[in-house]
């Protein structure tokens, strides 16, 4: 039986409530199915930790995380409502942990599965199923600024993308498409590059590199779509997409649109991969209004646990982990379709922990 080490880093705000619930779902899957063993190690880091200690994280966090098979993380940022009204010492120090866990660990590829689960009312008309994989480049492009300035009368950012990083990104996108069942409309395996070529030089470079890499994948079609059209088509007809590839900032925006049409931030998991230790976290932020109130939705954290098991299972060729991922997802769908307790954002009145417990009970009875 293979053993997997999971570093759990709840970070700030509501993460301290919901991230342990994602870990508990994985632990319960281990107990129900057996066939794999998970060892969870908890670490403290983030803005609140920085305010209290003057450091962004515990000593040797990087060394410890590098030993793990995966990280289950929350978000770093505001951890109470009053924080946004004043400057807290150590705020910037605490925020550094986000880049440390992502780019510092070499995770340059963001996976944003846009999947509509059974029992979720989709805002799109007559839509009962969505299954698209958004892949976001995290290491370069907008948000990563090798040169920038803000003054009284002007400001600028220098945006850089490089061949080696873009080739790695493009290659990953085609490989993900090869491992999927194709787009829902006709089963065609394809990669759609969404950017703004013809307007931004870096995006023209993206198009050039993706065209070159596509020659290695004759079984995968490559399409180009301007980002404004991509946003429209994703809302009108998501079935026309299989894998969507986006630069950093564009991927952030399109990912939020995708989250909206598949249930919202309260149910959407994410993964940052490609480096030493992959990072998995809910798509939502620290949600300071929910801290200590018990109304945050635990689904995103629980499904992040499912995404973690599925991704590591695929990487390691472990069917037992993949079965664990499927068990967690089916239990969430059971909750959504059987009138089980739900939080307010999903039309219910139950608190965070009541909903999580209902999912854990469902894991004992669902069939898949």
Automatic annotation (TrEMBL):
Record-linked InterPro entries: ICDH/IPMDH, IsoPropMal-DH-like_dom
Keyword annotations: Manganese, Metal-binding, NAD, Oxidoreductase
Cofactor: Mn(2+); Mg(2+)
Coiled coil: none
Pfam families named among the record's database cross-references: Iso_dh
A molecular function (GO) term: oxidoreductase activity
Residue ranges of domain Isopropylmalate dehydrogenase-like in the record: 5-359
UniProt-recorded name of the protein: Isocitrate/isopropylmalate dehydrogenase
Species, as recorded: Desulfitobacterium dichloroeliminans (strain LMG P-21439 / DCA1)
Lineage: Bacteria, Bacillati, Bacillota, Clostridia, Eubacteriales
